[in-house]
Amino acid sequence: MTNHRPHIIVTGNEKGGSGKSTTAMHLIVGLLRDSHSVACIDLDARQGTLGRYIENRRGFSKKHAIVLPTPDVHAIENGTPGETTILDNLIGDLALGNEFIIIDTPGNDSPLSRHGHSYADTLITPMNDSFIDLDVLARVNPSTMRIEKPSHYAEAVWQQKMIRAKRDGGSVDWIVMRNRLSSLDARNKRQVEGLLDELAKRVGFRLIPGFGERVIYRELFLNGLTMLDIRDVIDLGIGIADVGGGLNMSHLAARQEVRSLLNAVKMS
Question: Is residue 2 part of a domain?
Fold first, then answer.
């Protein structure tokens, strides 16, 4: 490792389908568009969602002969011999020329994923706004609707915080990001929010609103685009799904969601 150390952002959650790779990609593009140098590492090479996202982006750029800010992605597969040493060396190499390193982790527990978590300056845990996703963070008593104890992932994060502090004296700013938020004021939504507020005080994370339940986030993946690319693409007259009629209020709200995430990270 060198004396220069980039800010490392890890997207992590032991439950699949929470939006880790979508979050990582929007962070990457947002930071690149803000003129930062960014490298990214995919620790789920077998699934390869982040790598596929970037591959789709390169294909879209080539097809339409346009230049979109795009990083190189470095992938490590779980179970690779010497995987943690490979990650140590890779972070050391990438630290030489980048202000940020984004690490996307798999939706399951593994030694490689835990090791990646231990490097986080900022850990972002996207979670769908439901009791199913909350269960990864805490055990909730169904009779009293109170938190009984932190769950396995919260305990794993605590362990990696201790490892990080012992290794280099650093600290981890943990952000839990509530994804797929409904605009409706549902009882379930209020209950989850109240329990997360309570848990945040107990285990030490910041709670922020994430991305709403919008179809466009899922559609953008096929073209490798993010909400921060949409205006440029429309201005170039390129038609893509869901924005044929131009930006609407939902798209503008989605762009603001991404900007709010970037601002939360830069507070770290």
Answer: no
Cα–chain center distance at 191: 24
Q: Please check whether residue 247 lies inside any domain of the structure.
A: yes
Q: Which is nearest to 121 in space by CA: 105, 100, 107?
A: 100
Helices (H), the chain: 20-33, 49-64, 83-94, 111-117, 131-134, 152-168, 187-203, 215-220, 230-235, 249-266
pTM, rounded to two decimals:
0.92
Within a domain: 1? no
Q: Is 253 contained in some domain?
A: yes
* Residue of 98, 93, 91 lying closest to 168 (CA atoms): 91
Q: In the β-sheet with 206-209, what is the strand arrangement from edge to edge? A: 73-75, 38-42, 100-104, 7-11, 122-128, 173-179, 206-209
Percent of the residues in the chain that have a pLDDT greater than 70, as a whole number: 93
Q: How confident is the model at residue 182 (pLDDT cuts 50, 70, 90)?
A: low
Domain count, the chain: 1
Other CB atoms within a 10 A radius of the CB of residue 183 amount to: 9
